[in-house]
Design brief:
- Helix content is 49%, strand content 14%.
- With 284 residues, the protein is an alpha/beta fold.
- It has 2 domains: 179 residues, 3-Layer(aba) Sandwich (Rossmann fold), CATH 3.40.50; 84 residues, N-(1-d-carboxylethyl)-l-norvaline Dehydrogenase, domain 2.
- Strands 3-2-1-4-5-6-7-8 form an 8-stranded mixed beta sheet, with helices on both faces.
- A hairpin with an 8-residue loop joins β6 and β7.
- α8 packs across α10 and α11 packs across α12.
- It is globular.
- It binds acetoacetyl-coenzyme A (CAA).
- The site of acetoacetyl-coenzyme A (CAA) has 16 residues, from α8 and α10.
Length: 284
């Protein structure tokens, strides 16, 4: 199963990061989003990142141009998947949106194409069931920021074939990443472990145990985490954190995954972290 043509659906932070790394690894990439403005924003982000690589002397102007020329932005789904070998979906974390999209991808993509999702916690098996090719559906969960983080969680759905799993594992390696195999379960491993820690950090603020700065200092200086949990929550997006906690809570039915009321309150207020300029901290 050879992969040359790559399609990324969703030109947000994750999607554009995945497209960039794929293009830097030599793949031809189609980057699809609903509107021209979204795709243009994603391309601007990639250009900015590559420009910094040139400034640091890690990339020449020519190489930067070559990487950019390998990414074709588009808003036409049929065109984006016509010749694709793999689609990596990185759209909003919403089961209905994802299943609708996978139905369309299944109709338009060639029969051999792998349909991968970058979902952070939703069931791969459920997404696969929306298609006629559940054996070709798999989770390929990149971490943020994609160009920097080495991990890709590769998640097998119930029907994922061994061939597809092996092809995706190899693809992750070809992209300079370290794949780790995980089975389909709410939050997989990454968010099942990470999110309850973040949620617990929010509880310490909610219960007045400490200020956000103090919580983050404890975890940074005491546990050598590169970012404190509340800084990280703002970085990921508080809406995403809440959504993942809800998925864990619903998926396991265990009260230990109950989202902290303060997290709900911030999301209701539109304080979603870095992307809205305010979360546990404020940003310019
Ligand atoms: N995009 C691309 N590159 C970035 C970046 C970004 N947003 N932020 C930083 N970088 C790069 C910098 O350019 C720099 O690169 P070089 O070393 O090549 O020059 C490198 O990362 C280090 O950056 P800094 O020195 O500016 O800052 P830092 O040392 O604090 O590192 C960090 C920044 C890599 C983001 C680090 O703080 C970190 O690892 N934080 C934790 C990130 C994390 O946990 N991510 C997972 C989130 S969970 C997730 O993604 C899954 C999910 O489903 C929710």
């Amino acid at each position: 199963m050879s992969i040359r043509n790559f399609t990324v659906v969703g030109a947000g932070q994750m999607g554009s990061g995945i497209a960039q790394v794929a293009a830097q690894s030599g793949f031809t990439v189609r980057l699809l989003d609903l509107e021209e403005a979204f795709v243009r924003k994603g391309m601007r982000g990639i250009d900015k990142y590559l420009f910094r690589q040139v400034e640091k002397g890690r990339l020449t102007e020519t190489e930067k141009g070559e990487v950019l020329s390998r990414i074709r932005p588009t808003t036409d789904l049929a065109e984006a998947v016509r010749e694709t070998d793999i689609v990596v979906e990185a759209v909003v974390e919403n089961m209905e949106v994802k299943t609708d999209l996978f139905k369309k991808l299944d109709e338009k993509a060639p029969g051999h194409a792998i349909l991968a999702t970058n979902t952070s916690s939703l069931p791969i098996t459920g997404i696969a069931a929306a298609t006629q090719r559940p054996d070709h559906v798999i989770g390929m969960h990149f971490m943020n920021p994609v160009p920097v983080m080495k991990l890709v969680e590769v998640i097998r759905g119930l029907a994922t074939s061994d061939n597809v799993f092996e092809a995706v594992e190899k693809l992750a390696r070809d992209m300079g990443k370290h794949p780790v195999e995980v089975n389909d379960s709410p939050g997989f491993v990454s968010n099942r472990v990470l999110m309850p820690m973040i949620n617990e950090a929010v509880y310490t603020v909610y219960e007045g145990v400490a200020e956000p700065e103090a919580v983050d200092e404890v975890m940074k200086l005491g546990m050598n985490h590169p970012m404190g949990p509340l800084t990280l929550a703002d970085f990921i997006g508080l809406d995403t954190c809440l959504y993942i906690m809800e998925t864990l809570y619903e998926g396991f039915g265990d009260p230990k995954y109950r989202p902290c009321p303060l997290l709900r309150k911030y999301v209701k207020a539109g304080w979603l972290g870095r992307k809205t300029g305010r979360g546990f901290y404020t940003y310019e």
